[in-house]
Amino acid sequence: KNEVEQSPQNLTAQEGEFITINCSYSVGISALHWLQQHPGGGIVSLFMLSSGKKKHGRLIATINIQEKHSSLHITASHPRDSAVYICAVTLMDSNYQLIWGAGTKLIIKP
Amino acid sequence: DVKVTQSSRYLVKRTGEKVFLECVQDMDHENMFWYRQDPGLGLRLIYFSYDVKMKEKGDIPEGYSVSREKKERFSLILESASTNQTSMYLCASSPGGVNTDTQYFGPGTRLTVL
């Protein structure tokens, strides 16, 4: 069993829909990261969080430490949000090693 | 803004060739990483370095070596390329220290070994 599990693996939605991507983990962590990878390879860090909720524009990330679960939400989705969204966690005793989820491929249709 | 650059976006090599992938960061980061990314497997850590001349094996170091002679540059070496090393290779850096582990990524190198 992977230590970081994402769901769904693939998600196709219509423009304007509210999107939720989930991440569950089974290890002790000091932080959880959400990253975005557009076609062509570039990876951009969206959020790093260790508790509660963070918001940036139409993106919202939440984490429940007790349940070992995080969600990434996109409001008013747009075709330019189409990308792979990756969840990664920093292990409790490490400052630099990340454990990665397999990613969720999101396609937003106009 | 942090900038992480990789020497090539696309590379085609033949089996048995020695391959060098270069990564340079311009923000004086302590930590640098090499990952490979394959469909369905996500990112897997090959090697990382937390200081000049210091390196540690990641999850899949076999068939690879690394070099960090200068703080800003981290090289990944495939001593004798094989077809199963065809992949997307991503370099990243992070500042180092407690709670400063956001990683910044380069654009990636798509390597094909024929």
Supply the key terms.
heterodimer, A: 110 residues, mainly beta, 5-stranded antiparallel beta sheet, 0% helix, globular, B: mainly beta, 4-stranded antiparallel beta sheet
Low-confidence stretches of chain B: none
**Radius of gyration of chain B from CA coordinates:** 13 Å
Helix count, DSSP H or I runs of 4 or more residues of chain B: 0
Give me the oligomer status. Answer: heterodimer
Low-confidence stretches of chain A: none
Q: State the share of residues found in helices of chain A, binned by percent.
A: under 10%
C-alpha geometry of chain A: globular
* Beta-strand residue fraction of chain A: over 45%
Kindly report the average pLDDT value of chain B: 91
Radius of gyration of chain A: 13 Å
Largest sheet report of chain A: 6 strands, mixed
Class inferred from helices and paired strands of chain A:
mainly beta
Q: What is the overall silhouette of chain B?
A: globular
**Averaged pLDDT of chain A:** 92
Secondary structure category of chain B = mainly beta
Strand content of chain B: over 45%
Describe the structure in your own words:
The complex is a heterodimer of chains A (110) and B (114). Chain A is mainly beta and 110 residues long. Chain A is built from no helices and eleven strands. In chain A, the strands form two sheets. In chain A, strands 2, 4, 5, 9, 10 and 11 form a six-stranded mixed beta sheet that branches. In chain A, strands 1-3-8-7-6 form a five-stranded antiparallel beta sheet, with no helix packed on it. The mean pLDDT of chain A is 92. Chain B has 114 residues and is mainly β. In chain B, the strands form two sheets. In chain B, strands 2, 4, 5, 6, 9, 10 and 11 form a seven-stranded mixed beta sheet that branches. In chain B, a hairpin with a 3-residue loop joins strand 4 and strand 5. Chain B is globular. The mean pLDDT of chain B is 91. At the A-B interface, strand 4, strand 5 and strand 9 of A face strand 5, strand 9 and strand 10 of B.
